[in-house]
Write a structure and sequence with these properties.
The chain is α/β, with parallel strands linked by helices. It has one domain. The chain contains four helices and eight strands, in the order ββββββαββααα. The longest helix is centred in the C-terminal third of the chain and has 12 residues.
Length: about 130
């Protein structure tokens, strides 16, 4: 089994009510054939949320670092669709994005297992008044 291919989201854009995550082209050819694993992981060291996709060669990790979390929060609160896209305009919808993000952000709040920095950052961006307690 190959190591997962990690693609860091380079920039984000809003198209109508859809959040588009732009990924580097050279590794993301054939993006439309990728399979949605419908799950997410946390990379505490990289302060990133990772959406898991698969292709014939193995897993692909779409890593979204904290520079883009404001957009993620907006997508969740507006129940926006989230897609990845490469430079040629090929796209793939991340169908479980909002559900997974809600679960993870709730889980991380007040949970030292993810590391202090990750927890602080999540609280800062995804924390809400009623959860600040």
């Amino acid at each position: 089994m190959m190591m997962p291919l990690r693609l860091n989201v380079q920039s984000t854009a809003w198209e109508n009510n859809t959040l588009v995550l732009n990924v580097p082209l050279q590794e993301s050819k054939g993006i439309m054939e990728w399979k949605d694993s419908e799950r997410m992981l946390v990379d505490s060291d990289g302060l990133s949320f990772i959406y898991v996709l698969e292709n014939s060669e193995g897993f692909i990790y779409i890593a979204i670092d904290n520079n883009h979390w404001e957009d993620l929060r907006e997508a969740i609160s507006n129940s926006s669709d989230v897609w990845i896209q490469n430079d040629t305009g090929e796209k793939l919808k991340l169908s479980s994005f909002n559900k997974e993000m809600e679960y993870l952000t709730e889980n991380i709040k007040g949970n030292a297992n993810y590391g202090q920095q990750m927890e602080d950052e999540v609280m800062k961006i995804f924390g809400t008044e009623e959860n600040a307690g």
